[in-house]
Every structure is written in C-alpha cells, then in structure tokens.
Write a structure and sequence with these properties.
By secondary structure, the chain is an alpha+beta fold. It contains ten helices and 14 strands.
Amino acid sequence: MNDALETPLRFIDEKSGANADTVLPFQVDALDVRGRVVQLGSALDTLLERHAYPPAVSRILGEATILTSLLGTALKFEGRFQLQTRTDGPIDLLVVDFEAPDKLRGYARFNEARVKQVVGSSAPHASLSAQLLGHGHLGLTLDQGPHMSQYQGIVALEGQGLEEAAHQYFRQSEQIPTRLRIAVGEVLDGDGQAHSWRGGGILVQFLPVSPERQRQADFDPGDAPEGVDTPAFVEDDAWLEARSLVETVEDHELLDPSLSSERLLYRLFHERGVRVFEGMPVREACRCSEPRIREMLQGFAEEERVAMVADDGRIGVTCEFCSKHYSFDPADFKSTDPS
C-alpha cells in the first residue's frame, strides 16, 4: 500500500459495494488542491426506488443527489443545503435536501408524456439531461439556522446539464477554480438485469495560499476597441494538472462497486501523493413527521382545512420526499383556531 494513503483500503462488500454511501475528503498538497469523492449505493437506490420514477427521471434526480452530496458535506456546522431547479423542461422541478451531518432526501416533478417524447427521440445521450431540464435556473441554498441569514446562489440553465451548471456556479459565485465529475447508473445482476441504482462523483478545488495563483480567466469582454490587445490568460500549472486529471475520470470508474474511493484517488494522484481523511457516511432520511405535518396544518385557516377534507372525512397529506401518507381528523384542529 502506498504511504500517501493515510487510511487503509477497506475490504469490498459485494452486496453494498466499495465505500457505499460515503463521502471521502482528500487533499493533494503538491498541487494545492482539496476535494471529496462520493459513492452512493443503497442510500441512492432507496431514494429513487421509493418514487418509482421513469428511469430517465431517476437518473437526473440521482445526478442532483450526487451533486448535493458533494457540496452539502462541506458544511462545518449543523444546517441544511438545498439544490433546486425550476425550468420549462419535461422535468420542471428538482429538489434535493442535505441536512448535516448525513441526511439526504429528494424528489422530482415532471410531465410524463413530455419525458417519453424526449427519451424516445434520436437525440444523443449526452444531451438528454439538458433536454429534460430545459431552460430556467438552478438554485443552491445554504440555511445555517433560524439565527443566521440564508445564502443562495443562482445559475441559469440554458441547455446544459447539472455538471456544467455547477461549474458555472463556481466560476460566477464562488470564484474558486473547481472541477467535478458526476455519474449515475443502474447496477446489473449476473443475468444482465438492472436491479439497483448507484452514483458517484468527485470534486476538486484549487486553494493555494496566494490569491494571484487562484485567478481565473476573465469573462469575454466582447468586441474590444481596435488596437487593444487582450493578454492571454495562463492557468497555474498545478491547477491545470489537477483539473486535467479529474477530467480523465470516466463514468464506469465512479460507478464500479469494486473500485474504492481510495483506489480511485491513488490512480489519479499517486505521483503527487494524496492524503485522505475520515469518510463521512450519508443516508436517505426524510425530515417529515406527524408533529411537523400537524403544525403545518394548524397554520392554515379553518376554511382552508375544510377544503382539504377528502371523501372519507379526513385530511390526508402525502410527503413529496418520502411518499409517506399522514391522515388527520379535522376536529383535532378546531380547538387550536383563535376565537
């Protein structure tokens, strides 16, 4: 085993996969980069299968979940990180929540007929995600609790997928040189039949001591006046090397249950030396509960609750994230209304 790996390689569990449901932080000192690798097995499969979405919708929600895991696990405090898209595409809404330190949940809203039309077209697979999302925006929200202000970054979705939208976010909002790769796929059994979802991703960021080394290319200013030369931008050699290495990562490397996160990092950075830190487990878990739903219903006016009463005389609420159904007696809320 290479001394650059600070933690031993874990044995592979053939049922759950290498490092399943774990985010592994790492650092490459020689290149001044830090990052995280995520592998999701049962957590992602549970999140997607409970909704029984069409495969194309599940895949994109899976990509959003991987991206949220990479970004949300950077939280150093109790709080929530949310990814949300609102677009004009067949999948008009995606929401994925990460609640520190380890809870993930998500759902998608879509037009089934439009999804089938896009999937059935002859468009190349690489553009499928962009076509299903359409045009709109991607919002990334950091909620640090009731006593702290929220932070939100917005990126326009203009025909690109989530991976490229994340790159735009870091260029425009964070201004930190960042490169990431995400992949989602179905794990096949011995007969070649899909039986579970799996996802993976890697994120690397250039964080040198000198701010000048972290400088990125300026946005194109448009047509410069005649005689004005725009100086060529030269990327830092260390960042160019790190970014180029991450760009070589292929989907099958992120999805292979037999390839651990440590081994992937060794493949990429063994010549420079890579340090890995304690992995952070993540799990699919919803925040809904009967008390939370009851409190929400108490916030409605009585006439609004009357309109919610179904034919069976009960108020029914189904959580969009976990599909759990709650049923309430309307009479339980009358005493809580102001007189």
